[in-house]
User: What shape does this take?
Amino acid sequence: MICNGCKLKYCIRCTELTNAAYSCIKNGDLGDFQWNCRACKAVVPTLEHINNVLGDMQKKQEVRLEHIENRLDTMEISTQKQIKMCSKEIKRELSIEMKEEVKTKNI
Assistant: This one.
């Protein structure tokens, strides 16, 4: 038998499988059966926990990233509005200054 976890080979006796169970596995009667040795069985719960924690962390990071992207979109819109307002104000001030300059030269 080959352990699905560590990929090491084990004899039937070391697998602690019955002859009947081994025959079913060998004949393919159990479909895609995967066997794990004792050491891998002991580690699997820890790996599953780590996987769950990492999955939770990924979900939290995705939510945070979406929140940041939304804030950036809002800031971009706000910045564009401010630029338009400043541009209008600068044009207005320049227009006033130019009119005053023209008046000064005409006098």
